[in-house]
Design goal:
Layout lengths: L4 H8 L2 H16 L10 H19 L2 E2 L6 E2 L4 H6 L5 H18 L5 H7 L15 H12 L1
Antiparallel strand pairs: 1-2
Length: 144
């Protein structure tokens, strides 16, 4: 298996620079527009897998002190090493901040009208989908 030059250069960088690049560049691109997302469980799982994959790549394998073997990090290990808020906390805090911003808007603003608008007509059968407003209410309950 051959790796490109960018893989070799990435492996030479110190962990603090890799983490800074992840926080400033990667997270800002991944979370672009997350204020308006209404995530399903499948999408949350995919975001968690992405974050674990990136953090495993940054921290690399660890050497076992007893056996001397190299082992890949478990799902909890990168989160223990990465002491900053995870991707869900960032998206929830951004969603709460955006909801406060929209709530302060006047009634003439289109964004506010979309927030308070109630559709008319019949709803489809089955369980209603989780809306953005439901997500904000759940986020606020978790914060309190």
């Amino acid at each position: 298996m051959s790796f490109g030059a960018e893989y070799f250069v990435f492996s030479l960088l110190p962990k603090n620079i890799k983490l800074t690049k992840y926080r400033t560049t990667v997270l800002s691109v991944v979370l672009c527009g997350c204020e308006t997302w209404s995530l399903t469980l499948r999408e949350e799982c995919r975001l968690r897998m992405f974050e674990n994959r990136v953090l495993r790549r940054i921290f690399g394998p660890k050497r076992d002190e007893l056996t001397g073997e190299w082992k890949a990090l478990s799902n909890e290990a990168p989160n223990d090493l990465y002491c900053l808020p995870n991707i869900f906390r960032l998206s929830k805090s951004r969603r709460i901040r955006w909801s406060r911003h929209v709530a302060r808007m006047g009634e003439r603003r289109d964004v506010y009208r979309v927030l308070v608008w109630r559709p008319e007509g019949k709803r489809p059968l089955g369980r209603p989908r989780r809306t953005w407003e439901d997500n904000v209410k759940m986020d606020l309950q978790e914060v309190e």
